[in-house]
Amino acid sequence: MVAAARFLAADASRVIAQTSAESDPNVFDAINWNLLLEAVPILVLAYFLARFSSTLLTGLADRFVAARFRVTVLIPVFKLAIYGTAVYLAFSILFDLTENQLLALSGVAGAAVGFGLKDLLADLVGGLALVVEQPYQIGDKVAIGEYYGEVVDIGLRSTSLVTPNDNLVTVPNYLFFNESIANGNAGAAEMLITVEFYVDPESDAARARELVEEAMLTSQYVYVTDDLPHEVLLDDDIHYRKITGKAYVNDLRNEFPFRTDVTKRALAAFDREGIESPKVPSGVAGEIDHPGVD
């Protein structure tokens, strides 16, 4: 690959030299360096304009919760339009290339993209695909490969997530083509939350199920309608009974407060009613998650 890259670079250099010798001046002579001061401010202005529009729309989305996701979906569209226009204007000012010069420069650029910028190009193409297909929006809770969190920004090169540990993770956009994407709310404010409990087989599993349901329905974060029902499942195993509660929260940002609230009150009710945790043999202990953890 290195030898091929050197060959392409040498070939492109010969094309440029031959073109210059025949009729046209050097490619870089076509750049009016006096106009550089006009082009650079355009790119700088585009950067700050994109940041301002993103901040403004994010603030509006937080203020008008009901329309949050209809507002945040505009952020990547605005950024794409701003940066695309800025690059077009800057190149229009700087370059006035002939056909031969444009062909030679395209060969060099193609080699550079092919061997040195392929990852960046993949990220940019992924960013364009995200804007068009919208598998997730700013504000969604998503899992992209090994990463999970709330989408806080969608750029042309990467997507930013805030994880449950409050870490900001930058995910390259090319993963859109290679990884499965799980969206927990798909642009809605409500989100389905699952809470799991394990009880001893000798305890009253039916009563434990009732206590979990009561803890969910009395939570300040729960949101239940005809279209968004709740559910409590009871599964049987040799070593334990598994109770799975499923309900929607009124705002996806209440995912973890809801889990904590339901878990704390359900476990307290278990203690009052003598419902015990399973006594699992050491050989199978690893098969059981901690109570209340999905």
UniProtKB/TrEMBL annotation:
The chain crosses the membrane at residues 33-50, 71-95. It is a multi-pass membrane protein. Keywords: Cell membrane, Membrane, Transmembrane, Transmembrane helix. Residues 119-183 form the Mechanosensitive ion channel MscS domain. It is found in: Cell membrane. It holds the Pfam family MS_channel_2nd. Coiled coil: none annotated. GO terms for cellular component: plasma membrane. Belongs to the MscS (TC 1.A.23) family. This is Mechanosensitive ion channel family protein.
